Automatic annotation (TrEMBL):
Keywords: Cell membrane, Membrane, Transmembrane, Transmembrane helix, Transport
Transmembrane segments: 25-49, 55-75, 115-135, 181-200, 234-259, 271-289, 391-408
Gene3D superfamilies: MFS general substrate transporter like domains
Organism: Nonomuraea rubra
Top-rank taxon: Bacteria
Record carries keyword Metal-binding: no
GO cellular component, one term: plasma membrane
Name of the protein described by the UniProt record: MFS family permease
Location in the cell: Cell membrane
């Protein structure tokens, strides 16, 4: 087999999934909106910094941007499970797009009220989990089971590309046109996502394609609870491992700027290089994960790549050598991307269709909650001036849960059973 044959084989799945019109529309709309999201926080930060006492107000902006996510995550799941996801995603885009547009409109009319950026940030945070849970919950209705890894890899690629392009593009537009213009672009990106969601032909209502009824559709039937997801040991174990890894990621969010400022040459440019290395690793990892390598034993595969990603944190010990630290970032990105993709495919297979909105919202909300904990833990360690203890803490927090997960899968009997609701054969732990 030649290299060209190998490359064609690896890309065939991507071409096949992108040939599906409804998935392609929703993915493109989501990706454009994510680029706008990447620009938004930069623009809001710049607007707040321009206010009197702006530095102190940044903490309040961050709280407004992140705290409502938890309430919104718990509320969005039942809505996604009860109504057609096309209309829920479109409504979310219209609401948040209008919030973003309010700032350039007020600027054109005269003056932006000092409180408006904080209100816009709160609205964004409250509805943030709708697409984060809604798009993955819709994927099983848009692609066949054998293409779930590829579809999830494409979603991850969209996140990674937006994470690089959004902030960079936002900074350029702010310099040339101001923060209000950036928010106007984000409003347009929300409108495009709404149009893409409404253009999807296939209904995205629970039970519309598998013959099962939507929650509450049968007279007298008890409505299932999203908390039932927490009775699945594989989902609970992988989610806990992810939460621990996100604690380590929260530590890295503080350690990276600290290294760039105190231990590495180059200052802000160095921080940009490290983030670019992380994003490049994520892109490479997502592309490889879409080939389906983790489909047969997903829990074990997740544990292996999480353990590999944990070793990347040790690269920080290479400071003051920039290439060694950048290599660590690359490893973290390369192996954390397959973690996300294979875990998402696992959730799609194990969460019953009528519960996907609530299941994804609940699990993703739990995982979103842990990075601030990591930031709080590592700050006093770095303030003491020592690098080794924080790096060891990051490595252990990320790696030990992977070892536990690996040990659990090592005790698995060679058996599987069909799920009561989806008919999917399960890997048991």
């Amino acid at each position: 087999m030649t290299v060209n044959d190998l490359l064609r084989g690896r890309t065939a799945g991507y071409r096949r999934v992108l040939s599906r019109r409804d998935f392609r529309l929703l993915w493109l709309g989501s990706s454009v909106s994510l680029v706008g999201d990447g620009m938004t926080f930069v623009a809001l930060t710049w607007l707040v910094l321009s206010q009197p006492d702006g530095v102190r107000r940044l903490g309040l902006l961050t709280v407004c941007y992140t705290l409502p996510v938890f309430a919104g995550g718990l509320l969005s799941g039942p809505v996604l499970d009860r109504f057609d996801k096309r209309y829920v995603l479109a409504a979310d885009s219209v609401i948040r797009g209008a919030a973003m547009a309010s700032i350039p409109v007020m600027s054109a009319l005269g003056e932006v009220p000092a409180a408006l950026p904080f209100v816009v940030a709160a609205v964004y945070g409250l509805f943030k989990m709708v697409p984060l849970a809604g798009f993955p919950a819709a994927i099983p209705d848009l692609v066949p089971e054998e293409d779930l890894d590829v579809a999830n890899a494409l979603e991850s690629l969209g996140f990674s590309l937006a994470g690089v392009a959004g902030p960079a593009l936002g900074g350029l537009l702010i310099a040339g046109f101001g923060g209000e213009a950036v928010l106007a672009f984000d409003a347009v990106s929300f409108a495009l996502f709404a149009a893409a969601a409404l253009a999807v032909r296939r209904p995205l209502t629970p039970g519309a394609h598998d013959g099962t009824a939507a929650p509450g559709a049968r007279e007298g039937a008890a409505r299932p609870s999203g908390l039932r997801t927490l009775r699945d040991r594989a989902l609970v174990a992988t989610t806990l491992a992810f939460m621990a890894f996100n604690v380590a990621t929260g530590m890295l969010l503080v350690a990276g700027p600290w290294l760039a400022a105190t231990r590495l040459p180059g200052g802000p440019q160095t921080l940009g290089l490290l983030l670019a290395a992380l994003a490049a690793g994520e892109l490479a990892g997502a592309a490889l994960a879409g080939t389906g390598a983790g489909r047969r034993r997903p829990v074990r595969a997740i544990a292996v790549v999480q353990l590999a990603a944990a070793t990347g944190f040790l690269g920080l010990l290479a400071a003051p050598h920039l290439l060694g630290v950048a290599a660590g970032y690359l490893v973290i990105g390369m192996f954390s991307a397959p973690m996300t993709i294979w875990a998402q495919s696992l959730r799609m297979a194990r969460i019953p269709a009528p519960l996907r909105g609530r299941g994804f919202a609940l699990l993703r909300t739990l995982m979103q909650a842990t990075p601030p904990l990591g930031a709080a833990i590592v700050t006093p360690l770095l303030a003491a001036g020592a690098l080794a203890p924080p790096v060891l803490a990051m490595t252990l927090v990320a790696g030990v849960p992977a070892l536990v997960l690996l040990a659990m899968t090592g005790r698995v009997r060679a058996r599987s059973r069909p799920d009561d609701h989806t008919g999917v054969r399960r890997e048991e732990i």
